[in-house]
Write a structure and sequence with these properties.
276 residues, alpha/beta, Rossmann fold, 14% strand, binds nicotinamide-adenine-dinucleotide
């Protein structure tokens, strides 16, 4: 996409959690194309390397740094933030993007996502990364923003914050009888809770000029199984999945002064899936 003002984020510093995954690099491309410098953090070293290469391919002068960081580890996040403070390189923009986002083609067998055999370790991990991790990063980086009286936090939620999953899309016959993998409960819970966290923090830090909003993307096409692609497309008003780059303009909108009078809100971009 990239229809935004190329100077909208000149001189801004941004941090993106889960930056080594599928969407993180595209959030980064958007921010660097709008003039920001970006730090990607993740626990996946290979993912971070891939992400950096991808971003530099689009913009070879991109100011991009990577850091292995487990966002569920408060001490580690605090230490990393202290380094930024020491060098006076504090972040102006935080994107809470990391989540346990199981690819539905990879689930199956014992790890079916069925409520009846939903693995508690899986549940705890989903909550820990998607929610506790977002809280830790908001607390550590957001507090510094509040001190400086400026900042933006964007929580990456999902259309599953405003609708139920409709598990029939994971069935070849679109019936409840032969679903092998269910979108897990933890995912819906985390994404919905992020909306509450968005409102809470927007109220908490509004008077400190820290804006907090959520982006609710719909499913991104990433070579999913054919029948899943068809089933979801049928249920989406625009008749298709999102392309990987279709959230880039929204990221710049939410991160920049284009949304200066917006906080505590949820921007739903799901091709119209949640309105039917
Ligand atoms: N891909 C989609 O179709 C889609 C749709 C709607 C919403 N979303 C949301 O967008 C965000 C990004 O999705 P994605 O598809 O890129 O997911 P992804 O699984 O590709 O990336 C998530 C990244 O988070 C990292 N991560 C996991 N635990 C971590 C930890 N403890 N500390 C730091 N990093 C950690 C993973 O290593 C991974 O690189 C997620 O919040 C997801 O829920 C994605």
């Amino acid at each position: 996409m990239r229809n935004f003002n190329k100077n909208a984020l000149n001189g801004k510093r941004a941090i993106i959690t889960g930056g080594g995954g599928l969407l993180g690099p595209h959030h980064a491309i958007a921010l660097v194309e709008a003039g920001a410098s970006v730090t990607l953090v993740d626990i996946n070293e290979k993912g971070l390397k891939r992400a950096k290469t991808k971003i530099l391919k689009v913009n070879d002068s991109a100011k991009i740094a990577t850091q292995i960081l487990d966002i569920t580890n408060l001490n580690a996040v605090e230490k990393f933030e202290a380094l930024q403070t020491k060098h006076d390189t504090n972040f102006d923009i935080l994107i809470n993007n990391a989540a346990v986002n199981p690819k539905m083609s990879e689930i199956g067998g014992q790890n079916s996502g069925r409520i009846e055999d939903y693995n508690l370790n899986q549940w705890n991990n989903e909550i820990n990364v998607g929610l506790t991790g977002a809280f830790i990063c908001s607390r550590v980086f957001g507090s510094r923003m509040a001190e400086k009286n400026k900042g933006v936090i964007i929580n990456i939620s999902s259309d599953l914050a405003v609708r139920a999953p409709d598990q029939r899309v994971y069935s070849p016959s679109e019936s409840f009888d032969d679903i092998k993998s269910y979108k897990p409960l933890g995912y819906s819970v985390v994404k919905t809770a992020l909306i509450g966290m968005t409102r809470y923090l927007a109220e908490y830090w509004g008077h400190k000029n820290v804006r907090v909003n959520a982006l609710l993307p719909g499913g991104v096409f990433n070579k999913q199984p054919e029948e899943l692609v068809r089933n979801v497309s049928k249920r989406t008003l625009l008749g298709r999945w999102a392309n990987l780059n279709e959230y880039e303009d929204a990221i710049v909108f939410l991160a920049s002064d284009s949304s200066a009078y917006m906080t505590g809100q949820s921007l739903i971009m799901d091709g119209g899936r949640s309105v039917v």
